[in-house]
Every structure is written in structure tokens, then in C-alpha cells.
Amino acid sequence: MSSVFADEIDDYLLDLMDKKNIPGLQLAIVKDNKIVKTGAYGLSNIQDGVSVKPYTPFPIFSMTKAFTGVAIMQLAAQGKLSPSDKISKHLDNLPKAWQSLTIRQLLSHTSGLPKILNGHGVDLIANGQTEPAWQEVQTLPMRYETNTRFEYNQTGYILLGKIIDKLSGQPFVDFIQQNQLKKVNMPITLAAGFSHTQAVVPHQARPYYSNGKGILDTLQINFDPFFRTAAGMSATATELAQYAIALEQEKLLDKKYLKELWTPTRLNNGKTAGFSELENGYALGWQTILREQHPAVSASGGDSNSTVIYPEDNLAIIVLTNKLGSLPIFFIDEIAGFYFPEMRAENGWGLSKDLFKLFQGMKTHGFEQAIALAEKMRSNAQFEVQEINLLGYQYVTNGKLDKALEIFKLNVYLFPENANAYDSLGETYASLGKIGEAIKNYQKVLELLPNNQNAVNQLKKLKTLL
After folding, report:
1. What is the spatial distance between Cα 68 and Cα 98, in angstroms, rounded to a whole number?
2. Staple 233 to which of 55, 57, 64, 225, CB 3.0 to 4.6 Å?
3. Angle, to 10 degrees, between the axis of helix 370-377 and the axis of helix 353-365?
4. pLDDT beyond 90 at 338
5. DSSP code, position 101
């Protein structure tokens, strides 16, 4: 399929893949409920030199949660539950502290439940044994007061699987396959199943990650079967585009239920919270991007793939990659910018008034003048550390590390007591091969936050490179 922007978008993605060392990528773009562009780039399997094809299924990791959210709302449409239901209405023999939790809180990671993972990838507690892990997690204390913060948590999705199993009368895998994948005609996704990379899936892209030395290693990961409401599916960008169209056309959920699916949970303080300044809310298995212009909802997984739907713009963009850490969520807006030019980073998309003014000055006079320009504005301007950080990472994502470095230097200058600012600057120095400078900045992180484990780990790694 073609697009008037095909050459520009292809060139942009190929350049980005080269800068970010992404082996393979699939793209699908939906405009006005029609797929207007697809693309398949690079290698799905480096070892065997296999090219990405339109029919290559990619592991989508936690994007699976979006399908779980839709399944819950489909049961709501059938009158079998409400997202506001306490989970004890549908499940028996729960720990007392769990009984008043709601389905919405499980879906939106605001429950405060203890974690069933031990912090090492997707390894379960209790030595990785399913039933002992489930018994142990029920004895652990709650992590925080329910609905007071967002904290990513897989335990709740196991409970959601149990609710779907019980109320639908069939395993949740079968329910999603019959009520979503078959309805949308997603044969490749359907055939791939929920077993991630354990099963032999024809033509499946092999996932990779950077070992920190500029070399890609093959990812080996196994999802326990009872964990598969949270992760495990594989799909193609084109079939996910069809899924986005089906949602927008209300083929899976009526408008009332779709609106609730994409409504972010409000914490007790009235605010929303999510993964980042960009994905600043979490709804029912879907992230939300709340902003005045071009608001969106997203579903991402493995820091390697994202579906972003812009409901007000009749636009959806799906990017799947086979490299963990490629974070397409941070460059999909840039692709949207080919359709809505104001969304291009080069035009200052998303910046506050004061930072936009500073940004325009940096573009005119050079990014190395960022500190001097900010100093002139400082008495009459307000800057936010997280917003500057996000701007810097937009340039990291686009492979423009020299400009990102100047932005992170600016952040440290403006916010000298902020550990995260030094962390970002240290990371960028490391990416540029300036090991000594990277070490200095991670040491500063530890001065401000003595127990910061990421800084400890990075320092160990960097000192081996001296």
C-alpha cells in the first residue's frame, strides 16, 4: 500500500533504525479507518538473515493487556460485570486486603497489590513455581494504599484472567480469540497464540536487546501460562491496524464501552498517572496521552512496540520492532507529524510556552547556547525538569545525541539537585563513548540518591570500560 508520504516516512524510519540499531521494524498507518500505508524493514532474524515481511508476527509483550481490557469491557457489555465491581463479587477466597479492590484498579495498576514477580525479568517469586508463587503472593502485604499511585503490577492481571475464565465460562485465551481475533479477521495473530516465543510460530521475529556494549543479544524469555493475560501474544502491524479500525468502528465495543475503556483512572488526589510525561494516564489496559492537541491512547509492550490511536484525528499508527528499548512510543508522534506538521519535534511539538521560546532560540543560535539563552529568560520563565528531560530523549530517540547532550546539560544547570537530570546526562555521555564524564554524572546521582540501584549498576559497567 502506498502513501503520498511513503518516501519520507520510509527514509525517516530507515535512518532511525540505523541510529538506534533496530534490526527489524513493521509499520501500519490508518487514516479515516483505512490502512493507508504499511512497511516492512530490516531483519526479523539476524542469525539467519531473514527479512521482515508483512506477514512476520512480532512478540508484542504487554500490548496483550489491551486485549484483556477489551475482553473485560465485552463482558461488561454482556451485563456480567462492571469495572467498578469489587473483585470479591466474582472471586472467592481472596485475602481480606484484596476483597475491596475493583476491576478498574486491577486494569489500571492502581491497586497496591503485592508483586508476583521477583524483579528479575518475568521470573515468579517462590523459585519460579506457579502454584507456590500464587500462594505466597497472597500472604504478602499491600505495597501502598489503593488508588494513591500508579505502579505497574502483573498480579492484578492474573486476577483478571480468573475473572474472565469464570464469567465467560471458557479460558480467557479462547474468549479473546473467539470474540476479538476471529471477529476482526486476524489469522496470523490467532495462529501465533499466547505462548510468546516458547512455541514454534511460523515466520516469527526474534527479539533482541542491547548488552550495553553496542552488541545485540538474543532475548530468551518464558511467560508462565497463567501470566498470559498480561503478556504473550504475537501479531503483525497490519492486523493490529485492522484491530484499531474495528475499535473505532465499534465492531468490538459500542461507543459507551469504548469511551470507558479509554478513560484514565483518577487517583484519590484527582490526578492521573502513567509511565511518563507522555503516557501520563492509564485506563483499562490502555495507556492515555492526555494533552490539549492531538490526545491519544496507546498500547505498548516490551519497550519495543506500540499502537497509538488519535481518536480526534481519525489516525492510528502501529510500530513493531524486534529490539527491546527501541521505544517507538517516543517517535510515533514524529510519524504522525507527516500528516499533522505541527507534531514534528523540529517544530517544537508539545512544549510549554517558555520552553518552546527557548527551543526556538536554540534552533536559531545553536543548541550549545542553551544555557546562555535560558539564563537570559530565567527571571520571567518557568521550566520543568521532566519536560526538558522528555525533549532531550526525543533527540536521543532520533539519534541526535549531540543535541540531546546540550539539552541534558541545560537540565543539570537549571536543576542541580535533581538526580534524574544527572542520570540522563550520564546516560548520554556513555552513549557518546565519553566514559569519564558519564562516571562523574552517575556519581552525582549517588550523591543525591545514595541507594539508586541504576546508578550503582551503570558505574560498575562503565568502570570496566576504562
Report:
1. 20
2. 64
3. 140
4. yes
5. -
Q: Give me 114's grid cell.
A: 503485592
146-171 pLDDT per residue, tens:
999 999 999 999 999 999 999 999 99
The closest alpha carbon to 156, from 213, 207, 83, 80, belongs to: 83
Burial of 202 per CB tally in 10 Å (0-12, 13-18, 19+): exposed
Q: What is the pLDDT of residues 102-149, one digit of tens each?
A: 999 999 999 999 999 988 778 888 887 889 999 999 999 999 999 999
Rg (CA), the chain: 22
Neighbour tally for 272: CB within 10 Å: 19
CA 249 to chain centre: 24
Alpha helical stretches, state H, 169-236: 172-176, 182-184, 187-192
Q: Are 396 and 412 within 8 A, CB to CB?
A: no
Q: Which residue has the higher pLDDT, 193 or 212?
A: 193
| Cβ proximity of 252 and 184 under 8 Å | yes
How many CA within 13 A on the CB side of residue 380?
6
pLDDT at 350 over 60: yes
Of 206, 258, 178, the residue nearest 51 (C-alpha): 206
Helices (H), 146-204: 155-168, 172-176, 182-184, 187-192
pLDDT at 458 over 50: yes
